[in-house]
Amino acid sequence: MLEMMNRRRFIDRAGRLLLGAAAATVPGAAAAVSIRTGKVTQATERLESGARDMTLFLCGDVMTGRGIDQVLPHPGDPALHEGYATSALDYVALAERANGPIPRPAEFAYVWGDALAEWARIAPDLRIVNLETAVTTRDDWQRGKGIHYRMHPANVPCLTAAGIDCCVLANNHVLDWGYAGLAETLETLRRAKLQPAGAGRDRAEAAAPAVLTTAKGRVLVFSFGAESSGIPPDWAAAAGLPGVNLLPDFSPATLRQVAAQVKAVKRPADVVVASIHWGANWGYAVPAAHQGFAHGLIDLCGVDVVHGHSSHHPLGIEVYRGRPILYGCGDFLNDYEGIAGYEAYRGDLSLMYFLTIDAASGTLLRLRMIPMQTRRFRLHRASAEDTRWLREVLDREGRHLGSRVEAGPGGSLALRW
Predict the structure, then answer these.
(1) Domains of the chain (ranges, CATH numbers)
(2) Which of 202, 378, 381, 401 is the most buried (most CB within 10 A)?
């Protein structure tokens, strides 16, 4: 704030000289600025600060384990401990039966498909995903848990091929293969220069944010999980005990704890992301507790972006006090092709979320979404018909949250609030 004030004083003192130079050298600059009693208009300030607008890529669950792991260059042991599947290859067979043959071994970048071109075109400053799999060869599977995800560590180039910067881990699959599996996951990600958040060797490490530095400023990513997403309560990290950063509840006391954690790390002009794995897999209703907690994160904790996930399909979006709340981003990549049930929710469709934030104030400037569809374990641009369906659903679910979703250029979707 002090830096901004000093800069404004400098501009005021320089006055007409600076503005005249801008009008002479920048096309259209004269239309963007004006002088009123020596003050620079808001349009000029936005022109100046445009270089600090930061674009973040966010998405929902990235599940590169199980079936997807089997088609990558280094598949792990396919043995599963599920009631309805004994091998991860069963999920490959289901997908191929539904949509055709999948190359094996597929290149590391194969699964990202058309998403690669969108990342290259939009060029976000950072890419943040919820990585919902252990990355391990360990076999200490968690008994009493119906589904177990793991990806072989040698397949981690699948993640680096997507240019991912941060993997949030406070979810209900990162400990599927025990404490040793978690330790190997953390070490593998760090060796690959993928910053983890939300899980660690003890409570302090699990609660610590990923600190991501860009030319436009820092982004702090705090990762939290809730039992409502299926995280076993005994997975909570504690003093001297590995685990995930599990929220005890959505109470004011928990908000005060989060506020203290953010305050201890946040600097002026840092952008703070709270990434939360919460809620059921299916259904569009946003629980009142989630909305109240998200508002509290913004009001009391200095959070600028609430990044929710766990739902297998996208949920409605709210912009509260200029800050975006993505209550549920839906799965981004999974091995669910060919599995019957819940077809009405179109779990095969997903979204790439591109949020442009004013790095100086933390407020949302725009939110663009690119609809995708998974076929043959690969992301494809969604058809015009599927894009229209997604727009209608998001628009319907966002109305009571104060947002609208409109068609954007090139088959994209744009949030209005």
Answers:
(1) 2-40 (no CATH), 57-416 (3.60.21.10)
(2) 378
